[in-house]
């Protein structure tokens, strides 16, 4: 009868400007989709060139190479007898658009430009693309000669149209359009479109996946229909991790779920669905049918092809499933681990080096690397040939098979405890025990000789010797002496990253990992160019609170019992002299605020868009049970002073995995001045006036 349509969506680990690799992954996904009986295949946003090309979109080379890849796709036998929906930039009448190119059997059916561009947070699409503003309008697009020679077409439809096959009607959305208040699927559904497609470039944020799933399911809950979502996955060259979650939904319920985190470069989801279920669902929604009778119709591109087979009575159709969400602790364990693996294999380095202090942050970073090793061993066990080939290249052994995470960790992960006279034996022991439990190659060294040499140079030149506060020195002297220790650790980290493998008779170099969390970066509680300065930082977008929960998760799931003593110890930088052999310095005392308070300040500043006065007004209600208005005012002023004094540190912040919407990342997410008037005189006066009134 032609009722059961079989469609495919995918999550691809594309890499910006890797046209060769991107083509191979697209071809592989189409081949898998066809082998599973699919008649339509949807891919991620801008999959041909990779989503994260940024200012390379301005280059004509990017457009040229995208069309060259499209030419290869059109010519490939793999793409025959299946509708292929791919993403690439297209220049139409000298305007650059983010487009879907939909083709079948060497003929381009439609080029559909994106209507609503993503331009908030990490997204800057309006910098490179123009939205298509002509609703339900189609123009002629003159194809480049290399495409004309393959398709035999001179022009193809370009614009806001839908496809009418022999058995159904398909309409495309692109990423942000699902999130827009006037999503195209609303009007398309009223106009009889039964299958909606969405190609996305949506990145991971902690606790975000459910929002995306809810949006997809709600898209067809009111209006009926089938919704297919494809997404990019992996690190395509910057701070973001695209978290897959390809899915297919029908009439408000999920029927197929892809993985959120995996090391598979190509993941294809296929579902067979009964169109009559859509039609009967819509038939009883009278309000929908009344609205449909008045809708302005979309241009339809007729396609002499069906997504179903004539004799499909015996074709089994998919049933609704319950979406399984990861806990935040699982997300931290998996997302940054997959990001690290992509970065490691694509940078062609031999592993990581981490300054391991025995505190929560560096220990959490070590656990993420250990989780990465777990993922690699699991992927190899499951037959992932790509991961096995990458692992063998990284360890420089063509016969190697990673089976034990601890053994693999020994090969790719070096940890280093850098002691000084201010370090306690407790942190040294904690770092050593954790290194033993995860299997890293561990180094113990002492930096006192280097510290004394640097301070000695200053003393020779000036005739003055700085002292710590506990020895009678000023706060300026004490801070300078702390910073010398921190910066020497950074220099040594890079030295050992470059030469440790050389000293062990092994090839390659190591990437240096940083371990400053999002709260400390926001407050500026770090030394500029210390161990927070690294190649990449997997926890730079994660709060201290979430990291503590993640540590507990590691104790329970990885049996890393060394983390118990790390969890119970107060966070400390160990940069000031010990008192009776014990640590006298703690992070929260140094900062003048707790990590819990910092998380609140961060969310209000970035997510709630609160300046000093608005933050005070919100907090006097939030904290009315624990603080007086005057105490709230004092806390808010102290935060903004420290934040603004230290904002300059964000300009050199190590590239960090983006995981929180209150990240202070200065690269493109949180754009602020870095030279402030730190007195905030007008703003603080408004607060004082309100305090006095209260």
TrEMBL record:
<dbReference type="Pfam" id="PF00795">
    <property type="entry name" value="CN_hydrolase"/>
</dbReference>
<dbReference type="GO" id="GO:0003952">
    <property type="term" value="F:NAD+ synthase (glutamine-hydrolyzing) activity"/>
</dbReference>
<comment type="pathway">
    <text>Cofactor biosynthesis; NAD(+) biosynthesis; NAD(+) from deamido-NAD(+) (L-Gln route): step 1/1.</text>
</comment>
<dbReference type="InterPro" id="IPR003010">
    <property type="entry name" value="C-N_Hydrolase"/>
</dbReference>
<protein>
    <recommendedName>
        <fullName>Glutamine-dependent NAD(+) synthetase</fullName>
        <ecNumber>6.3.5.1</ecNumber>
    </recommendedName>
</protein>
<dbReference type="InterPro" id="IPR003694">
    <property type="entry name" value="NAD_synthase"/>
</dbReference>
<feature type="domain" description="CN hydrolase">
    <location>
        <begin position="5"/>
        <end position="275"/>
    </location>
</feature>
<dbReference type="Pfam" id="PF02540">
    <property type="entry name" value="NAD_synthase"/>
</dbReference>
<dbReference type="GO" id="GO:0005524">
    <property type="term" value="F:ATP binding"/>
</dbReference>
<dbReference type="InterPro" id="IPR022310">
    <property type="entry name" value="NAD/GMP_synthase"/>
</dbReference>
<dbReference type="InterPro" id="IPR014729">
    <property type="entry name" value="Rossmann-like_a/b/a_fold"/>
</dbReference>
<dbReference type="InterPro" id="IPR036526">
    <property type="entry name" value="C-N_Hydrolase_sf"/>
</dbReference>
<comment type="similarity">
    <text>In the C-terminal section; belongs to the NAD synthetase family.</text>
</comment>
<dbReference type="GO" id="GO:0034354">
    <property type="term" value="P:'de novo' NAD+ biosynthetic process from L-tryptophan"/>
</dbReference>
<keyword id="KW-0067">ATP-binding</keyword>
<keyword id="KW-0520">NAD</keyword>
<dbReference type="GO" id="GO:0004359">
    <property type="term" value="F:glutaminase activity"/>
</dbReference>
<keyword id="KW-0436">Ligase</keyword>
<dbReference type="GO" id="GO:0005829">
    <property type="term" value="C:cytosol"/>
</dbReference>
<dbReference type="InterPro" id="IPR014445">
    <property type="entry name" value="Gln-dep_NAD_synthase"/>
</dbReference>
<keyword id="KW-0547">Nucleotide-binding</keyword>
<comment type="subunit">
    <text>Homohexamer.</text>
</comment>
